[in-house]
Amino acid sequence: MSNHYKLNVNNTFQFEADQEKVSHLDAISVEGNKYHVLKNHTPFQVEMVSADFIRKNYTVKVNNNTYTVKIGDELDALIKEMGFEIGKSKQINAIKAPMPGLILEISVEVGQEVKENDQLLILEAMKMENSIASPRDGVIKSITVQKGNAVEKGQLLIEFE
User: Fold this and answer.
1) Distance separating alpha carbons of residues 128 and 107, to the nearest angstrom
2) Which of 36, 56, 82 is where one domain is finished?
3) E strand or H helix at 81, and its extent?
4) pLDDT tens, 11-44?
5) What is the spatial distance between Cα 115 and Cα 26, in angstroms, rounded to a whole number?
């Protein structure tokens, strides 16, 4: 992974930065969380007001204007794409067959509310019964297979609302 970052300022403006752009900033710590920054021969007075390193959220004051900044890197984008974000519930909306097999049992119905880890169905593969559990709380939107169906790897089995 490279040192490429996406910055979201006040949930309105989006910027991209990389190590090269950051290296062109001339920043000097003047006291505690206060800095003097020079960019393109323009001076800025910067103060780090608060920092949440876990969520990568920062409040920064630049020339007495306060900004909320969220910083993400390529790993954050990959985690978000996979449906997992720090501090948020999983948003997996479809269950697909992890391997080819035979549907032995379907434990849910369309419209049914399920909790995370509730059994959804049993898939037989290589003479083993595999219980497929719900990845999150939700409501079943559709079931695209029936008991006795043979399924291929990656085939859609269940969708959530």
Assistant:
1) 18
2) 82
3) helix 74-82
4) 888 888 887 777 777 888 898 889 998 888 899 9
5) 52
